[in-house]
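Deliverable D5.2: sample structural annotation.
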Amino acid sequence: MLSELNYLELRKYLEPYTPSPEEQDRFNLLSNSGLIKVHHYASRTVGPIDGFPIPETWIITSAGQDALLEFEQERDKQTEQKRQQRFQNQVSIAQVLVPLITFILGLVVEHYAGLVGSLGRWIENFIH
């Protein structure tokens, strides 16, 4: 399974790509893992040898594409699990709050009815 950084690095090789010297460590990891391969050779003069082929650009292999797909599927699966967990948490909160709110409303209605009755009796006594 690829790490997030290796995934991002490997995506660069979907098109022919020449790695920079700063990317050498990740490039070596991807190359040694068989996830990328040489796409184009350039001819260079190396010492007395003229026209020595040196890899210039690299491209993703089918194994690399499979690794990208696996990473994306796993990431999508984790995202879906997090979404389901958030929904379950919301349902759990609702299951706690609905009875609590019902209880509080019951108390308010019962208390309110008592207040209205007392106020009504007071007004009736005041009028008579």
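Annotation notes: Residues 62-127 form the longest helix (66 residues). The CA atoms of residues 35 and 62 lie 7 Å apart.
The annotation will be released with the project's public dataset once the embargo ends.
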